[in-house]
Automatic annotation (TrEMBL):
Keywords tagged on the record: Membrane, Transmembrane, Transmembrane helix
Cited InterPro entries: ArsR-like_HTH, WH-like_DNA-bd_sf, WH_DNA-bd_sf
SUPFAM superfamilies registered for this protein in UniProt: Winged helix' DNA-binding domain (SSF46785)
Protein name: Winged helix-turn-helix transcriptional regulator
Spans traversing the lipid bilayer: 231-249
Gene3D superfamilies the record matches: Winged helix-like DNA-binding domain superfamily/Winged helix DNA-binding domain
Region (Disordered): 189-220
Domain of life: Archaea
Amino acid sequence: MLFILITFKSHLCFLDNMRRVAPALLVFLLALAYTVTCLPDEYVTLTVLESGLVRVDYSLKVNATSIYDVSLIGTPITELGIIVTDQSGNPLAYDINQTSNTITILALNCTRINISYYTQTITTFSKGIWSLQYNSPIESIVKLPKGSTLISMQPVPLAVSTSDSNLVLEFPSGSVSLSFAYIPQSISQDKTTPQTTPQVNKQPASTQNGSSLAPGKPSQTSTQIFSAETIGIALAILLFAGIAMFYLLKRRNGNLSEEDREIIELLKKMGGGMFQSEIGQYVKMPTTTLWRRIKKLQELGYVKVEKVGGKNYVRLLRY
């Protein structure tokens, strides 16, 4: 009886202690979840494309200053354009110092600065392995192409996740080095079709004394086969569908001009998506003409136009 009272009292003490600790433990877990799920105030995203190009996107917080200097990761490809905007997507004036690889931005009445450009100086390819090396003054997020296999990385990432089947790694500020192997999706998803065998229906055909269950009728054991007539009809249908598809594609592709094909080829080269302003800097045509071309490609099902940060982002659907 005494042992039962002591045990009951100890359980009460344990529950009382848990009641006191529970609020603090809950606050700690909520704080931990907040730090894991929230992005930092300043970060840079590096999206590695299949061609080895890297799209660099800065998101920076401005602290009441009119002139802002930023160290760039890699050397920007000026032919593909550099986009610098404020928090509302309005363009900002800037100047690039190629000697120090920095950009000076005139940021008046801004709370955030967004910088976007392409570079190919931070990736190398050797013996089937891609390497990515850079130094970032702020936290960085690396998005690898679909079908990539990570081989090595330094330092240990702050977080690892996936986005649309892309491997995403978050690193602290400083030097980052990683290597990966890339296998195109069209190759990695190929699978060998298993061979099929005709289904055979097996049923007993005789009794225990050997007499037939259904004299004068065919055996119950049979194999399903296709007659020559059935095969001929199926081949005719496939031939007709192939001819119709050929003329449909020929008619649809015949509506594309050289300028339309140039836009499609540019989107393929840049990983399947670009802002309209970036396309305009490359194809060198008036803004209204470019927009008509993009709308035409969207109506034909080649591209899709999305609003990203108040700007038109053109995504390639097929080619």
